[in-house]
Amino acid sequence: MVSSLDGMIAKKDNSVSWFETSDYYEQGMAAQDTEQFLTAIDCYVMGSRTYEHALELSKSYGWVYGDKPTIVVTHRNLPIDRPNIELYSGDLNKLVNERLKPNYRNVWLAGGAILAKDFIGLKLADEIRLSILPIILGDGTLFFDHIGQEQLLHLKDATAYKSGMVELLYEIRK
Question: Mind listing the pLDDT tens digit for each residue in 6-40?
């Protein structure tokens, strides 16, 4: 998940212009090799609002999820314009244990906050990778808005980049 320092993952208008940063951190690492990182992902899972937002962004930036299997968790009938996209409505435990675990090694929960909260609450997520950008938005959609439970984490990695972004990788303690 990409977040502002104050924990926002989206502006109220869903614009992503804040993802671009002009900050420069001298001691930071060069940008991560995005292509290499994305090749490790076997399947994407996302909520309906994230999917709709990704569809809208794809008009300007292209479909960033490529042709990897993408499961959209929704109770609505949404447009599907790619053969690798599937809608899912049902029990998340069943989705993970019967569909995802047997078929995929690295499933990436692409968003949003509600679905992430559900996966964490049901103990279906293994890690949280949070990329914090050097900006305070002040308003918008919180990533961890009323998660409703304490959750122990173990810091597996922390990386500061030249862009001023800090990436935190936490293992979720079960």
Answer: 999 989 888 878 988 889 999 999 987 777 788 89
Q: What is the pLDDT of residues 109-147, one digit of tens each?
A: 998 899 999 999 999 999 999 999 999 999 998 998 878
Domain count, the chain: 1
CATH of the domain at 167: 3.40.430.10
Q: Which domain holds residue 27?
A: 2-172
pTM of the model as a whole: 0.90
Q: Which residues contact 140 (CB under 8 A, 6 or more apart)?
A: 4, 8, 9, 10, 11, 12
